[in-house]
Amino acid sequence: MGIKCFVFPSKEFIGMTIDSKSQKVKNQTMDINNRSQKFRQLKRMKQHDMAILKYISICKLANRQQILEGLHQYLEETDENKRAGLMQTFEDIGILSEKDVCFLQQLHDYFTTNEQDKKFADLAVKNKLLKSKQIDVAFTKQLEIFKTSQKVKSISEILILSGYLKQEYCDALRYRLNIVTPEKEQTLFGNIAVNKGIINKQQLNDVLSIQESEFQNSQKIRLLGSILMEKQIISQKQCNVILNRQRQLKEKEAFEKKWNINVERLAPFFKYQQLKALLSAL
Questions:
Q1: C-alpha torsion angle, residues 208, 214, 216, 221 (rounded to 10)
Q2: According to DSSP H, which parts of the chain are helical?
Q3: Residue 205, Cβ neighbours under 10 Å: how many?
Q4: Given pLDDT bands bounded at 50, 70 and 90, which one contains residue 30?
Q5: Which of the chain's ends, N or C, has fewer CB atoms near its CB within 10 Å?
Q6: What confidence tens digit (pLDDT) does each residue in 165-184 have?
Q7: CA distance 89 to 45
Q8: Most confident range, picked from 34-43, 80-89, 168-177, 178-187
């Protein structure tokens, strides 16, 4: 039976082993810290850029290595105010083409509009202005338009063109959801009434408060014209005058959008109706 010999490691070997393990732990700690720092930086990404990153991944416009390279370049600038957008960074280093950037922006616009439209549709159904089936048809139409033309048409536009929703109710819903643009604001019933001198700003604010209170209590929207007539602030005739002016402004807005012109700038040379007749004849 042989005798087992135990060879004890030297102090130098033990020291080297400890140093090696210490270095390994140190490297792992640094790696964790770097990952944590990058994660914190990613959390500070702008919402728009986070959405774009998701679309790049889903649409497979870049592979994993390219995405990591692009993110590294994007996060190099620590000052968020000076940092270029994610799409711009990816385009600058050749990961995305100009066509890709255009597609991503259109896709982002579509989903942003779609989110607003869902809230719009929910509120319309709650107010019994629309049926669920009509909403489904409108969303299907919206997707078809985007697929064929890459143009984003809001659900409210589609519903009006389909004859499902009146313009005045559409305006009221958009106003409640705070998605009224400055251009749209000038065509609102209350603003037209003030500009025509039919009511003053104080009366408008009072009626808006009543409308807001009713909306908060019941989630139901009552048109300003209805409240103003109920309070005997305006007559039916005055209400019709405001509605006619509203229709004219919306018609002019649609005309300017179609022909990509500003009627006011051409006013010294043409009146609106003359310009409309001239361009319609082309």
A1: -80
A2: 11-43, 47-58, 64-76, 86-92, 98-126, 132-149, 155-161, 167-176, 182-185, 189-195, 201-218, 224-230, 236-259, 263-266, 272-280
A3: 10
A4: low
A5: N
A6: 888 888 888 877 775 454 45
A7: 13
A8: 168-177
pLDDT tens, position by position, 239-254: 999 988 888 887 777 7
Long-range CB pairs of 54-62 (<8 Å, 24+ gap) are: 55/104, 55/107, 55/108, 56/90, 56/96, 56/104, 59/103, 59/104, 59/107, 61/96, 61/100, 61/104, 62/90, 62/95, 62/96
Q: Is residue 209 scored above 80 in pLDDT?
A: yes
The reported pLDDT for the residue numbered 23 is 60
- The pair of three-digit structure tokens given for residue 264, joined into one six-digit string: 């006011």
Query: In this model, does residue 235 exceed pLDDT 90?
Result: yes
**The residue type at 115:** E
Q: Quick one: tokens of 223? A: 């048109």
Residue 268 confidence (pLDDT) above 80 = no
The burial of 280, by beta-carbon neighbours within 10 Å (0-12 exposed, 13-18 middle, 19 or more buried), is given as: exposed
DSSP codes, 26-95: HHHHHHHHHHHHHHHHHHTS-HHHHHHHHHHHHTTSS-HHHHHHHHHHHHH---TTTPPPHHHHHHHTTS
The span from the CA of 165 to the CA of 266, in Å, is: 33
What percent of the chain shows pLDDT beyond 70?
68
Q: Which two tokens stand for residue 32?
A: 């964790």
Place of tokens 């090696």: 20
